[in-house]
């Protein structure tokens, strides 16, 4: 039976939600300031479409974004792109 697995990093579109879920009532974000390669949902969909239409079997496909960010840098980029004024600073 043919099969394939697609494994991706976190979606860039969910950065704002990720920060919100980990913000306490004082506004402190409790996330590690680790580097991650966020990937766009559209890129994952494109990869998934390619996998499902190919004849390859028994394989693992990994996808990640091209840029390396920390979570707070990604949030700043997301907020800046939306014209917002929020600031995110991750603490351990």
Strand order of the largest sheet: 1-4
Number of H/I helices: 3
Q: Can you tell me the residue ranges where pLDDT is under 50 for at least 5 consecutive residues? A: none
- Please tell me how large the radius of gyration is: 16 Å
Encode the helix/strand succession as letters.
Answer: EHEEHEEHE
Largest sheet: 2 strands, parallel
Task: Please report which band the strand proportion falls in: under 5%, 5-15%, 15-25%, 25-35%, 35-45% or over 45%.
Answer: 15-25%
Distance between the termini: 45 Å
The overall average pLDDT, rounded, is 78
* Quaternary structure of the protein: single chain
Shape: elongated
Number of strands: 6
Going by helix content, strand content and strand pairing, the class is alpha/beta
Query: What is the helix fraction of residues, given as a range?
Result: 25-40%
Structure description:
The chain contains three helices and six strands; from the N terminus they run βαββαββαβ. With 92 residues, the protein is α/β, with parallel strands linked by helices. The strands form three sheets. A two-stranded parallel ribbon has the order 1-4. It has a two-stranded parallel ribbon with strand order 2-6. The longest helix has 13 residues. The N and C termini lie far apart (45 Å). The mean pLDDT is 78.
SSE blueprint and pairings:
Layout: E1 4-8, H1 15-21, E2 29-30, E3 35-36, H2 41-53, E4 59-63, E5 69-70, H3 71-82, E6 90-91
Parallel strand pairs: 1-4, 2-6
Antiparallel strand pairs: 3-5
Short description:
With 92 residues, the chain is an alpha/beta fold. 35% of the residues lie in helices and 20% in strands.
């Amino acid at each position: 039976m043919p099969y394939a697995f697609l494994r991706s990093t976190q979606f860039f579109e969910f950065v704002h939600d990720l920060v919100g879920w980990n913000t306490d009532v004082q506004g402190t974000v409790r996330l590690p300031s680790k580097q991650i390669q966020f990937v766009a949902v559209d890129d994952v969909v494109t990869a998934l479409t390619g996998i499902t239409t190919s004849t390859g079997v028994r394989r693992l496909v990994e996808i990640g974004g091209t840029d390396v960010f920390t979570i707070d840098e990604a949030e700043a980029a997301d907020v800046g792109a939306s014209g917002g004024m929020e600031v995110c600073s991750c603490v351990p």
